[in-house]
Design brief:
Length: 251
């Protein structure tokens, strides 16, 4: 696998010109993965390389229809603004986005749930010059009418805040669903109960903080919405098999 420095030079990124053979190989490789959208973007968040899946799921016919544009240019509304804001944060901070659970459009009125990863690209001096990433479908496409926008927005708010008051009842209310509808829908999309999904999101956020920061475990537990350090440790051990401290040492 090529390194970030070999994929694109600062000049290539700045002008959205793709000249590296390795980049074309990666793009071709991901063309054979219809369940994943692959992309490379410049320092302004504009596409410089994509695979066929990304093009098709947005309703376009050619990669040239996407190159040079930002997500907000090819997908209207919040579903175009969210990835654009993600890109801006990765490019500004240099911190990756790892397996972020989100809903995206497919062809372009068929929403799918995806796990998205975005990694910053650096030049030889360590300056962020772009990003590379992919989104892979959690499950197959589901008819639009079966995925309420309120549900997507509630999950997005929860993932951003990790508020301790978020429970299945809160999620149902924010999603404008009954608790039975919420349970049925969450099981179909994620193969999880609402309680399991909430726990998964909290643990995923905690694991990223344990891996990427030096915050004390007790602070991480509160940041991720756990009532106290003991509750966090019990939940984390159930999900990962180890305590938060052991997980941090193993990173």
């Amino acid at each position: 696998m090529c390194t970030a420095q070999r994929v694109l030079s600062p000049a290539d990124i700045g002008t959205t010109k793709v000249t590296a053979i390795e980049l074309k190989v990666l793009s071709k490789l991901f063309d054979s993965a219809p369940g994943a959208a692959f992309f490379v973007k410049d320092v302004e968040g504009r596409y410089v390389a994509v695979n066929d899946s990304l093009v098709k799921r947005h309703g376009f016919k050619s990669k040239s229809d996407v190159i040079g544009k930002q997500p907000r240019d090819i997908c209207q509304g919040e579903f175009g603004q969210v990835p654009t804001r993600q890109d801006e944060k990765v490019l500004r901070t240099g911190r990756p986005l790892i397996e972020h659970l989100e809903m995206q459009w497919h062809r372009p009125r068929n929403p799918v749930w995806c796990l998205t990863t975005k990694l910053p690209l650096h030049d030889a001096e360590g300056k962020v010059i772009g990003l590379v990433g992919f989104s892979h479908d959690v499950r197959v496409s589901i008819p639009t009418g079966e995925i309420p926008t309120a549900y997507a927005m509630a999950l997005d708010e929860f993932e951003r805040t990790l508020a301790p008051e978020v429970t299945p009842a809160w999620l149902a209310q924010q999603s404008q669903l009954s608790t039975t509808q919420l349970a049925r829908f969450t099981r179909r999309v994620f193969d999880l109960t609402p309680t399991q999904l909430i726990a998964k999101i909290r643990i995923a956020a905690a694991s990223r903080l344990l891996r990427d920061t030096q915050k004390p475990v007790v602070v991480i537990s509160l940041d991720c919405g756990f009532s106290d350090h003991s509750a966090f440790t019990r939940a984390f051990r159930r999900a990962t098999g180890v305590t938060p401290s052991v997980f941090r040492k193993q990173r």
